Amino acid sequence: MKLKNKIALITGAARGIGFAVAKRFAEEGAQIVLADVMEAELETAKSKLANLDVRVMTVKMDVSNREGVASAMDMIEKEMGSIDILVNNAGITRDAMLHKMTDEQWDQVIAVNLKGVYICGSEAAKRMRERGSGVIINTSSVVGLYGNIGQTNYAASKAGVIAMTTTWAKELGRKGVRVNAIAPGYTMTEMMSTVPEKVLAMMAEKTPVGRLAQPEEIAAAFAFLASDDASYINGHILSVDGGLVL
Asked: Does 244 fall in a domain?
């Protein structure tokens, strides 16, 4: 078990990639904190981890609210212990073409996907620096590297996550804290359930391996970067995309 007794906080953990990461971490022996704004879905997610021999805690968290994030982390450390791993995974989409995108759509995505990562990262960094250890893994996207039609706000937020990742790696590496990011390609999460079959087929065709990723495949990359196997990896953006960007 590569993460035995590590305490991992995962945002956006109620479903999708976030839940897959939580499950994989639990299988590797980590103690899990599931954080999300969807309180009812958090409890469902927690129940799915009941068969694993690890402690699981749920926290309703709006990542864009610093006071709430700081309070949640204080509570986690009081009840569970020091946070060893932070996975900044919470994210939303509000897609529209540039000429149709509203300021509200822009602000909503930036608040969660960029400001939320900044707030959670800074609050975790304060605690990890003091201890001289910790791992932060941010969820970016291939869209943050190469853009995507109809996603000006999302692409900008995910590109910003990459910039923050490399900056934090330089700031925190000397303090014993590693910071990396995962840039997933097209992944079959619940979010994809509303995407028409022909669009999914087009996505698969664009990907050299000929299919979309399963959340568990993305989670495996998170588990590697969180573990001591990646002890000398810092400031890296790992694309897990089936060769999509080749």
From this structure: no
Q: For the chain, what percent of residues have pLDDT higher than 90?
A: 91
- 2 in a structural domain: no
Torsion 180-182-183-189 (CA) sign: negative
Domains: count for the chain: 1
Helix axis angle, 116-131 to 66-79, nearest 10°:
40
The pLDDT of residue 196 is 84
Please indicate, yes or no, if residue 1 is contained in any of the structural domains.
no
| Structure confidence at residue 192 (pLDDT) | 75
Q: Which of 118, 146, 154, 232 is catalytic?
A: 154
Facing residues of 183 across strands?
239
Q: What pLDDT shows up at residue 246?
A: 56
Q: What CATH number does residue 197 fall under?
A: 3.40.50.720
Residues 175-217: tens digit of each pLDDT: 999 999 999 999 998 877 777 888 889 889 989 999 999 999 9
Contact status, residue 139 vs residue 113, Cβ threshold 8 Å: no
Q: Which residues span the domain enclosing 54?
A: 7-239
Verify whether residue 154 is a known catalytic residue: yes
Q: What's the whole-number mean pLDDT along residues 163-169?
A: 98
| Pair 172, 125: CB distance under 8 Å | yes
